[in-house]
Design brief:
By secondary structure, the protein is an alpha+beta fold. The protein has one domain. The chain has 4 helices and 2 strands. Strand 1 and strand 2 form a beta hairpin. The longest helix is centred in the N-terminal third of the chain and has 18 residues. The C terminus is likely disordered.
C-alpha cells in the first residue's frame, strides 16, 4: 500500500463514536505540517482537493481562528468543485 492509498483510507475509517473528531485532528495536523513547510491556506485547500478529501464538513473548514466561506462551481455534468475563500 503506497502512502496515497494509506492517506485515502485513513480518512475514511470509521472510528465510532469518535470518527469525526479524529478525522478533524488529522486534517489539522496535515494543515499545520503544510504551513510549517511554507505553504499557505490556498495551497492547503488545493492539497485537500487533489487528495480527494471531503472538505464539506464545517469542522474542517474552521482553520485556526479564521473564518472561511465555500464557493461552489458546478461543472462536468453537475460535478462540484469547492474552494475555501477568506471572508475578511
Amino acid at each position: 500500500m503506497n502512502i496515497r492509498s494509506f492517506y485515502w483510507y485513513s480518512l475514511r475509517i470509521v472510528w465510532f463514536p469518535f470518527g469525526w473528531e479524529i478525522r478533524n485532528l488529522y486534517i489539522e495536523y496535515l494543515k499545520n505540517t503544510l504551513l510549517e513547510k511554507g505553504y499557505n491556506e490556498w495551497h492547503f485547500t488545493d492539497f485537500l482537493n487533489k487528495e480527494g478529501v471531503d472538505i464539506m464538513c464545517n469542522n474542517i473548514l474552521n482553520i485556526k481562528s479564521k473564518i472561511y466561506s465555500i464557493n461552489s462551481i458546478s461543472k462536468n455534468g453537475g460535478k462540484k468543485e469547492y474552494f475555501l475563500a477568506p471572508t475578511h
